[in-house]
Amino acid sequence: MYLTQSTDLALRVLMLLGARNQRRSAADLAERLRVAPQHMAKIVQRLRGHGLVRTTRGRGGGVVLGDGVLERSVGEIVRALEGPGEAVDCERPPCPLRDGCRLRGALRTAQEAFLASLDQVRLHELVTGPPEPVLLSLALPSPAASPPPEGP
């Protein structure tokens, strides 16, 4: 199954937020994940709409994980972000094979198996263990935000 770029980035945002479970600005997330700030704002808005993050405006505001999100399955999160769509659209344009085709059913079965395998993985499993050092390094304050080291 193919995940949209938006879903891929949304999962990365959740992982980054989960690494330290602390507030981040959308601009900081955009910088760390190397995407345009406007694109990140749309991703954060989608995540907020699904209750996966909470946002606060203004000074001291930012983005944090929603309650219990680390315990949710990746399959559940992907279903929320991708919606109920099927792998193929046999209606537009109308496929002449649709009345006798078995491809749609086979692809639906494969899609369900893909999501079922993601149901076995909780978000917290993606942010602990071996990936943790990389995520934590991304979750540290920006080098520009920290004071320069003092000289000898």
UniProtKB/TrEMBL annotation:
Protein name from the UniProt record: BadM/Rrf2 family transcriptional regulator
Organism: Actinomadura hallensis
Pfam families: Rrf2
PROSITE patterns in UniProt: HTH_RRF2_1, HTH_RRF2_2
Essential cofactor(s): [2Fe-2S] cluster
GO cellular component: cytosol
GO molecular function, one term: DNA-binding transcription factor activity
Keyword terms: DNA-binding
